[in-house]
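thought: user wants a sequence for this fold. calling inverse folding tool.
action: design(structure=
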């Protein structure tokens, strides 16, 4: 298979090692990108079998893709890993995913999403995902642009996904910021982007969700871009199948200029980058550039801001020991900066970063806070009309 050709491009130079969270946490070669490539190559060539310890090493990958940006040979690790997962799906799902897929799928069902706030008693990770307000009444609407019209965009959020259903504060912040800056914002009833299903080997479900979202966008017509409000994971997944459409983070949309006056936000935030915003969408620098315009705001990137926090892909539920080791390093770095809070760029990071005990903010929430504190007449109000019938 074409993806497996990438196995022969790895020269075992080791540039990936200091960028891999699982290698840094364990020191095990088998839990490094080059180690996993070596193991997959052995199975493909028939020198090893996909079972036992070998599967445990492969299963421990967070799928952050930081190794791809570090690799001087340009090995497309993600393509190899996914193709291997597809070929050995039963074996790959037999380690940790067999424990969490059922729970995740239940939470993302209609009943599961309604009772999800009560599920926070099951684990701290689930609690951080469902502790905000429900966005259900915000979707299925069109929000009017203010001032000179700059364009029409579709906001990618989903009331059918546990990662978004209870993220009301960031969705409202996105609506206020985007409409204030002259954009008409359409919020369809999108499905989950599909990333959690694809990463866990539920490829048919991921494809079905992709087709549903493609159908929704086809019916919309006339949107200039699909805008993701601070979720690198969603943006990376949408870039896979929304070809021909501009898929961007809200910060990328606003990079050409912000309207109005930015008020003072006098806080210091430790910065942890979203892996997929950085490694796939390549937009993490744009986020910081936009926020750097806010008076009083101090942004302090962690020394390891470009290394995964091990919060995505349900990792703390799958590999708690490794996730805790990664978090211990992040906590040490955060506390050394003495910040007032932490800046996160994706909902997935919440599962980890909230455990540090400091407030966690999203970029759009900080920008919204800045606008609200300045003299921008009429900023907080948003006007909406139904999108459907």
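)
observation: tool returned 389 residues.
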């Amino acid at each position: 298979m074409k993806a497996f050709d990438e196995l022969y491009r790895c020269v075992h130079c080791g540039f990936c090692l200091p960028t891999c969270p699982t290698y840094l946490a364990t020191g095990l070669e088998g839990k490094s990108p080059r180690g996993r490539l070596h193991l997959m190559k052995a199975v493909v060539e028939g020198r090893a079998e996909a079972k036992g310890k070998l599967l445990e090493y492969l299963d421990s990958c967070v799928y952050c893709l930081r190794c791809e940006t570090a690799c001087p040979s340009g090995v497309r690790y993600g393509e190899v890993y996914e193709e291997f997962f597809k070929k050995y799906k039963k074996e790959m799902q037999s380690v940790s995913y067999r424990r969490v897929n059922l729970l995740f799928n239940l939470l993302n069902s209609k009943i599961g999403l309604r009772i999800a706030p009560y599920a926070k008693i099951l684990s701290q990770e689930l609690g951080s995902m469902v502790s905000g307000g429900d966005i259900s009444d915000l979707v299925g609407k069109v929000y009017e642009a203010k001032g000179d019209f700059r364009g029409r965009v579709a906001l990618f959020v989903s009331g059918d996904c546990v990662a978004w259903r209870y993220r009301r504060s960031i969705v409202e912040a996105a609506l206020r910021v985007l409409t204030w800056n002259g954009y008409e914002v359409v919020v369809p009833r999108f499905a989950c982007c599909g990333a959690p299903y694809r990463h866990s080997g539920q490829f048919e479900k991921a494809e079905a969700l992709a087709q549903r979202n493609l159908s929704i966008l086809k019916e919309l017509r006339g949107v200039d871009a699909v805008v993701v409000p601070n979720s690198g994971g969603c943006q990376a997944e949408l870039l896979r199948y929304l070809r021909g459409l501009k898929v961007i983070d809200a910060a990328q949309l606003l990079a050409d200029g912000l309207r109005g006056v930015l008020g003072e936000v006098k806080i210091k935030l430790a910065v942890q980058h979203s892996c997929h915003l950085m490694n796939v969408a390549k937009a993490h620098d744009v986020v910081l550039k936009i926020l750097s315009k806010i008076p009083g705001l101090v942004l302090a990137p962690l020394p390891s801001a470009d290394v995964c926090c091990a919060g995505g892909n349900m990792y703390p539920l799958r590999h708690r020991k490794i996730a805790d080791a990664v978090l211990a390093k992040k906590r040490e770095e955060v506390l050394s900066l003495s910040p007032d809070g932490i800046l996160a760029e994706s909902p997935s990071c919440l599962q980890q970063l909230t455990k540090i005990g400091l407030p966690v903010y999203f970029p759009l929430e900080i920008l919204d806070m800045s606008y609200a504190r300045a003299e921008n007449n009429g900023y907080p109000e948003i006007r909406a009309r139904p999108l459907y019938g």
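thought: summarizing for user.
answer: Here is the designed sequence. The first strand starts at residue 141 and ends at 143.
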